[in-house]
Design goal:
Blueprint (H helix, E strand, L loop, with lengths): L2 H25 L4 H22 L14 H21 L3 H50 L4 H11 L4 H14 L4 H11 L3 H16 L4 H59 L1
Helix pairs in contact: 3-4, 4-5, 4-9, 5-6, 6-7, 7-8, 8-9
Amino acid sequence: MRTRDFLIIGAPMLLGGAFLAAFLLRAWKEHFIERSLRAYRSAHDRLTEGRIAKRLLPFPGICLVSSLRHWAFAELFSLLVFLAVVSGNRSASGMAQATVAAAILGFGVAWISLRGAAREALRSVQRDLPVACFLFSLLLESGMGASSALQETSGSIPEGALARELGELVRSRSLGVPRGESIDRSRRRVPVEDYRLFLNHVLQGERLGIGLSRSLRELSAKMLESQGHRAETIAQQAAVKMLFPLVCFIFPAVFLIILSPVILGLWDRLAR
């Protein structure tokens, strides 16, 4: 191995191996892996918040995404790209090209993954909101206070983006954040019209002191009705979406199976 190759490839690999060995040795200590995972998660949460503040991730609902899995996948993909490019070109220019390619492709993978996760989070909020609204109205009818009912609702609905957002709303109010400010912040975080209507009902009920249970139950019924209409629309669009694979893939195979005896018979007659 030449000196330049050792300085470019061997020394970083030796240094990385030393860090890995030190990490594995420290991992034997109690709770070190758990603390490392918490530090890794908090660092990536701060990274996501910084990218959102700089508008580098301008996706609706990106605040609802737990970003650890998506960033870890992007970093692993970047490492694989870097190793693939370096294995083909071990020079200094190859290292620079590998670094640039890994950074660009890694951020692209994170961009696509986070965008899909943000869309899925908004869909989960829209899906779970009628159940949460109905449960919240039942808890209010039983005599429970609004804050306690909201906390119980966040813990009773299926775990997801809506449960985390309601839990964050309860947590901010328990920390002394003003009621209107916490609701406005939650409204900005979740750009779903049904969720904004839900927050408006909660805010008006607490400000004016009116009964919330009946209005929330009516709102839940309207949400379920609108979800039914959306499901009917998607079902009607399914026939149009199935037309392309039917024409291009299924129909030719069916015609080939049906007409293959006729085609083979004509082939034998023409061959004689």
